[in-house]
Amino acid sequence: MKQLRGFIRKEFHHIFRDSRTMLILFGIPIIQLLLFGYVITTEIKDARIAILDKSHDEVTREITHKLLSSGYFRLDAMLDNEGQIDNIFRQGNIKEVVVFEQNFGKKLERDGKADVQVITDASDPNTAQLLSNYTNAIVQDYLQKKFVNYKIPLEIKPQVRMLFNESLMGAFTYVPGTMALILILISAMMTSITIVREKEMGTMEILLVSPLKSHHIIIGKVAPYLILSILNALIIIGMGYLIFGVPVRGSFILLMFVVIVYILLALSLGILISTISDSQVKAMFVSVMILMLPTILLSGFIYPIDNMPVALQVFSNIMPARWFIEAVKAVMLKGVGTGYIWKQILIMTGMTILFLGISVKKFKLRLE
Amino acid sequence: MISAENIEKSYGEVKALRGVSLEVKEGELFGLIGPDGAGKTSLIRILVTLLKPDKGSATVNQLDVVDDFRKLRKQIGYMPGRFSLYPDLSVEENMTFFATVFGTTIEENYHLVKDIYQQIEPFKERLAGRLSGGMKQKLALSCALIHAPKVLVLDEPTTGVDAVSRKEFWEMLKRLQKMGITILVSTPYMDEANLCDRVALIQDGNILTINTPERVTQNHESILWAVRSDNMYLCIRDLRKHPGVKTVFGFGEFLHITLRDNTISPTALEKYLKERCHTNIAINPIEPGIEDVFMDLMQKHDN
Amino acid sequence: MENENTVIRVRDLVKKFGQFVADDHLSFDVYKGEIFGFLGANGAGKTTAIRMLCGLLEPTSGELTVAGLDGFKQREAIKRRIGYMSQKFSLYEDLTVNENIRLFAGIYGIPTHIRKEKTEELLEKLELGSARKKLVRDLPLGWKQKLAFSLAIIHDPSIVFLDEPSGGVDPVTRRRFWDLIYEAAHEGITVFVTTHYMDEAEYCHRVAIMSAGKIVALDTPKALKKEWDATSMDGVFLKLARSNE
Fold it and tell me: What PANTHER family does this protein's entry cite (chain C) (predicted)?
């Protein structure tokens, strides 16, 4: 136990004394999140919209007025027919078109239900998402106040269409995605590099000749990164909440449990990489090629899995990040409990055991 | 203390060791001497349990290097060929770390390393990577000794180190030997053979001879002559042309030559050189050194 | 002692890095066809000095002439007139012997029509004909060494610099290598060797010993050994180092 503590202390010395490691550990997560934050505009002001009012009744006029007086929107054009919508979007000046169906007010009073169509330019998906959310909120707000004493619950059904990017990626997916990426980067790449560095420097020779057992070496190497990765996950969740308003709707403990399961998975991958690499460059290369790029491209982080060719969809099943993102989204955004994500947790645990098993088999007690 | 029997080791096509046997007695300072690629490192790594031999067996302190490797690892102090400490840890942190790893403390075995460690103690806060070559070595040696090993195995500790540090290092080894530690040390420098109790000359995976340094040179068969003249290059060429001359090798300011079954006398040889316009010729018999013997054995082995 | 045979002329050569004086007023001459040894412990200033002599580094002050060229203003020209071989051999390990020869011949601007002839000549001299299609990394260390040296002088430079050329090889291979060096010197190429293997110093015609940025001794090995009452250069070096402490 004392040996292990000494080993872990040494690892922390390595980490804290290397400015590059520190940068990767704490600089990259923050920079990456802020970069996404820069891309995601959370403030909407004077967004130019067009309105196609096929009804021209009191209700639609009042809703239009509400929208335009909210400060979020500015009227660019009143349209006469649907044929103009496509054109006006292509000109690129406006962000959103709101379409009221015919006899909007009458329908609402008669059926308690009316349709408003919100069409947004989703080539900037985050803005599009926000605009439609704002529009929606304003319409609902109007309804509640106007028909406060009405007997049956009224409903305006906004039909949101995201033009140019139908399968919109919501702003909220960035936080789970970034977390998936950062954790695999830190846990897998950094652990594999730090183990391989001992091989490169020749210190592994001395460690092997010492009475240390291989699990001492592995735990000693991995423990600091487990702690730092958890810290990182907390930073990302905290920044996501404070800066971008990404909520944690489900149980925080469950969320951290998922995070830790994923970190352990990434660490076991790191150990596995270290057993097959003999140089830091190779470990880095393997980490980037088989972990980072597929994580970004195939985990559903950037490109929705449903839109992938079938072969890649099948392939994405073996991406650890895919299961992690699914589970984290479910807990953070949908607020579900363990019952809904046991499958993801089970898959990640299985992968961890598999990788650890192979690593322990491959980790050599001698040089070869 | 150390015993190796008929050890073979290959890396793919390359044969590193071709049946090596040796014995190191308790308390001995034993030198393994040979050039790069002779098999020194492979043999040492097998003895410290880092490699498995393909064939043959070895024991250190009666423990088998393959079967009892866990027990054995606690008893061996090993200093690998490259500087193998953590450059980003301070002198003291390196020492503490290796002490902890071996389940001991600096204080417990301080008497063993005191001599050596005192010389670097003033710099104990300094990062190991910023030490000079000689100091790095002292630190590495201190770390290898911290768990009071019975056997100390050093792989080329003096390679790439300047003459002054080399001399100091051997003095340290001598002192450790007096404390009862058995020492196996490898080196490519032939001149260091004389500092060992016994040496094994190794070349191309074979042991050429094992003996005390004195015996090694005494066993040299042919008479050796040291020759010099003003133009050494032409002297080499002319000597090689002479049928009675067997070998000609440059040795600093002299050429060391052996003659074929003493077919030609030194006086005749001097005359031969004079005829070829050499000036300031001197031909004298000399005692062979380890390097002469090594070259002789090496060529015999090749034939 | 100055004459037309002076290939390297150094007077009061100083190199400073900020406040740190790496080389402190070095003065010496190296003559044509001489094997000149340059010794010193790590950090004594050897590497800095060699870099200035090779035209890689501009001196801070003093005078420096290499092969008749000025060490301040004509550094590019110096680089073309010298050969250089380091411990790491500067050969391309993943190219064959032939390819390496062709490459270096090309780098040094050997005209195409004599390149082939030169290659054959070299392969024959090194007895490497049978290995011409082999990758350099598969050659024994001694062969690499000889090939690297021959390529360093393929353009018939006035001087060749050898940076710790022969550590660790077996004694026979080492002698064969020195045979090549002697031959080059005999043909008029000046050989400038840095090393911290003292036994290698014995092969040099003259040696300079550096310590803490200064040249503390310069003479033939024989004279140095006599002066310091030592049987080997190792002994000279030890006594010098002690006297400087």
Answer: ABC TRANSPORTER G FAMILY MEMBER 20 ISOFORM X1, ATP-BINDING CASSETTE, SUB-FAMILY H, MEMBER 1
